[in-house]
Amino acid sequence: MIKEGLEKIVGAEAVLRQQPLSQYTSLKVGGAAEYLVKPKAYHEVAEIIAFCSARDIPWRVLGRGTNVLVSDQGLEGVVISLTDNLAKITVAGAKIIAQAGASLPRASSVALVNKLTGLEFAAGIPGSVGGAVVMNAGAYGGEMKDVLRRVQAVNSQGELVTFAAQEMELAYRSSVFQHNGHVVLEAELELVPGDPLAIQEKMDDFNRRRREKQPLEAASAGSTFKRPEGHYAGQLIESCNLRGTALGGAAVSEKHCGFIINTGQATAQDIYDLIRKVQAEVEKRHNVRLEPEVKIWGEFRDTR
After folding, report:
1. Which residues contact 205 (CB under 8 A, 6 or more apart)?
2. Is this prediction's pTM over 0.90?
3. Among 11, 209, 273, 302, which residue's Cβ finds the most Cβ atoms within 10 Å?
4. Where residue 157 falls among pLDDT bands split at 50, 70, 90?
5. Which of the following CATH numbers is that of domain 2-81: 3.40.250.10, 3.60.15.10, 3.30.43.10, 3.40.190.10?
């Protein structure tokens, strides 16, 4: 049985059945995970993945859930949650070693406390370090690629593997980890000693700009779409008169058209349908296909 096998690896208290994923995602939508597992060590992550792979059990890894749209039908198989137990951050000279479940803003704060510059851009990005590596997250002229030096990961057979920066294929909102089946466990970031007042000033400026321009008060997954080459997604969406457009409980933010928000009662299907509507309108008017930045998990009805 799946439950017994997982419990043998992580203990009964770390295996949850039919856990609503709306509680684990920033969009506050999504059905239940058949099994939600909370490993406490890297070898447990490796064993869970090896266990699932050997039995053709579908599995996914969830960080802080800030860039994921989960289907209302939920997810079959196993969701591995890293944020409860694998979120440690340590400092060694000018290097920060962060476990995948650690909060990215917390890593930025640790850098500030240790008078290290280079991670200010991450101060207001609400995801996990692991998710930031996978997405090569960035903002305000900085990205993970600038500071990432080494990653420890586990492959689909449950084997631990180390990647150097040049092996990660880091590009705009992209990395090798999006398609190689490896799970990020730990990242080593190389920073530079700096003036803490200047670091704080930069972080405050970035956070102020975020508050002014982004709907931080609403449930969202951040920027819904990647920036298309030569354009800004928000500007294309606004030019189609889609600002404030709503479908069910989902809406294009009045504050920033690049964000689709949950106004309070949205289903995952509402959000998915609005994503498709925005894509269709922008493609029709500008002949540009917007690619979602948010990861879409599970089954959805295509109504268009």
Report:
1. none
2. yes
3. 273
4. confident
5. 3.30.43.10
